[in-house]
TrEMBL record:
<keyword id="KW-0547">Nucleotide-binding</keyword>
<feature type="binding site">
    <location>
        <position position="545"/>
    </location>
    <ligand>
        <name>Mg(2+)</name>
    </ligand>
</feature>
<dbReference type="InterPro" id="IPR042099">
    <property type="entry name" value="ANL_N_sf"/>
</dbReference>
<dbReference type="Pfam" id="PF00501">
    <property type="entry name" value="AMP-binding"/>
</dbReference>
<comment type="function">
    <text>Catalyzes the conversion of acetate into acetyl-CoA (AcCoA), an essential intermediate at the junction of anabolic and catabolic pathways. AcsA undergoes a two-step reaction. In the first half reaction, AcsA combines acetate with ATP to form acetyl-adenylate (AcAMP) intermediate. In the second half reaction, it can then transfer the acetyl group from AcAMP to the sulfhydryl group of CoA, forming the product AcCoA.</text>
</comment>
<keyword id="KW-0007">Acetylation</keyword>
<feature type="binding site">
    <location>
        <position position="534"/>
    </location>
    <ligand>
        <name>ATP</name>
    </ligand>
</feature>
<dbReference type="InterPro" id="IPR011904">
    <property type="entry name" value="Ac_CoA_lig"/>
</dbReference>
<keyword id="KW-0067">ATP-binding</keyword>
<feature type="binding site">
    <location>
        <begin position="199"/>
        <end position="202"/>
    </location>
    <ligand>
        <name>CoA</name>
    </ligand>
</feature>
<feature type="binding site">
    <location>
        <position position="319"/>
    </location>
    <ligand>
        <name>CoA</name>
    </ligand>
</feature>
<feature type="binding site">
    <location>
        <position position="547"/>
    </location>
    <ligand>
        <name>Mg(2+)</name>
    </ligand>
</feature>
<dbReference type="GO" id="GO:0016208">
    <property type="term" value="F:AMP binding"/>
</dbReference>
<dbReference type="InterPro" id="IPR032387">
    <property type="entry name" value="ACAS_N"/>
</dbReference>
<dbReference type="InterPro" id="IPR045851">
    <property type="entry name" value="AMP-bd_C_sf"/>
</dbReference>
<dbReference type="InterPro" id="IPR025110">
    <property type="entry name" value="AMP-bd_C"/>
</dbReference>
<dbReference type="Pfam" id="PF16177">
    <property type="entry name" value="ACAS_N"/>
</dbReference>
Amino acid sequence: MTTEATSEGLSNLLHEERTFPPSEAFAAQANGTAELFDRAAEDREGFWAEQARRYVRWETDFEQVLDWSEAPFAKWFVGGRLNACVNAVDRHVEEGNGDRVAIHWVGEPEGETRDITYSELHGMVQRAANALADLGVGEGDTVAIYLPMIPEAAVAMLACARLGAPHSVVFGGFSAEALHSRIDDAGAKVVITADGGYRRGKPSALKPAVDAALAVGESPVQKVLVVQRTGQDVEWDEARDVWWHEALEAADGTHEAHAFDAEHPLFILYTSGTTGKPKGIFHATGGYLVQTAYTNHVIHDVHPESDVYWCTADIGWVTGHSYIVYGPMTLGATQVMYEGTPDTPHQGRFWEIVQDKKVSILYTAPTAIRTFMKWGREIPDKYDMSSLRVLGSVGEPINPEAWMWYREVIGGDRCPIVDTWWQTETGAIMISPVPGVTPTRPGSAQHPIPGIDARVVDDLGQPVEKGSGGYLVITEPWPAMLRGIWGDPARYQETYWSRFEGMYFAGDGAKLDEDGNIWVLGRVDDVMNVSGHRLSTAEIESALVSHPKVAEAAVVGAADETTGQAICAFVILRQEAVAEADEQGEGGDLVAELRNHVAKEIGPIAKPRQIMIVAELPKTRSGKIMRRLLKDVAENREIGDVTTLADSSVMNMISEGLKQPS
Ligand code: WTA
């Protein structure tokens, strides 16, 4: 199987030739410049040293930019000492910006808001740090955080950072079992949680999951700090549980922060691997802070004194860590933090928040954008979104149609879109257009940002030609790179650094177009091999979604006796098309129409063997489609483990609803 085989099938995406050059007005005010590229190309380490001193306050300056002598274990900004919390909070107060709003918090129940200035945040992190210290937390102790999207989540993370206690945030939607394994693996001494949170209009309990997680075996946890959010009843262990508000009230209001080594672990964050045990990715303080602040400034183009920035991710994912907490706060930005879902209590909630808070920079995920498309443009069209000036996308490939919809409907055709590729492991943005500099192209993350070296290589690790596909690798160490897998250095080396000599293999397939733009096609485990041709699921999905009747599509490769793998597509129709399909009984004509559409867009080889019209797709709580489960359906197997699904009934709906012609 050669990578050349992909070129034929990938013509659909790569024939995208629309480009949107930056407007002069935007370029004139942009933080990103062409000089950044030149400077980084001429002296990479010198470039990073400049960013480090520009964005971060060091209590002790570093002596060496990078120590790569024990590759792939990197040390950045060697000898430097800093405190991440001081950088994210105290500094802004000292510099006279204490009255600036740090967080415009919007609760899920309508009308419930809190505005927190940097001075107020400063008071909160000091008390929280003292409260944690009173519970025995000190440098190097790990703390698990299991909270809803409330300001206390950010405060808890920053308070840990202030003490040099690595935090391990576990997404509030994870089960007790998942929480248990993460707490144990990290050896957490304290858990910070809440009585509950709001979910689709109702209080939903959180603390029972912590109680259950700690009831199994011998737990390393000594204390549980509980934020009162919903006021619902909770079980209480007098010896172990402590109310957050009581602890903070009792704690001293001033806390003197110490500086830690640049390489001191800042946090652990578990990512669900494709199989087996989740990996505890850990990040070090200095390099991570430098790259998150730099990218938030240059890629999101945050101007802290005037912008209102909003990243819609949950704090439980890396996007929330880097682009809600550490990046924007190190810059001293003003941001919106929203507790709820996009459709609570109505489908216009996001746009209402944009209008009310005058959001100028919005950072969200393609899956959300496609959902908004499905709901229809009449909804956002009702709101005044003229405050928006930059739009960001992250987490998965964004198909050109969703990109164009985002640009036209949400961005009023005037906002640059930054399609940012990165991972939990990379810590910060790696590949993205630089707004104000790069002419953008719908659907492509385009090029490595200044200071980053990434490439698309073939099976042998050789760079591919323009127009060809291969593997996305990073060829030089970068400041925010993971420092390892918690407690398992061998797995780190093997997972990321063994596929290609001296290069970090990201696990994604990518393609270079004729202009040298990088198109990330998705995980290589989602790449199919059909009759000796390699085809990307993302590409066929993109073709399907480009059909006017399709809202969303997921494609999997199912085992096939003759062709190796065969393409199976699961398709959600747009509202108007659903009625039509119903009229046609099993939707036979429509299926034929869609198959032909894919053949037309990509080539006959990409024609799905099977297209199944479904009402929902199985998604993890972070919104990723679980192709593994779809593969089970496509291969007529018993459906596998559904515990990480946001809604496990979806699989029943799919299996029961399928009476498809093939
Ligand atoms: C995918 C999220 C295409 C990719 C920040 C990567 C993307 C995985 C993009 C990491 C993008 C992320 N275009 N694919 N702009 N951004 N991905 O660790 O497959 O949750 O390997 O980090 O998401 O997901 P993670």
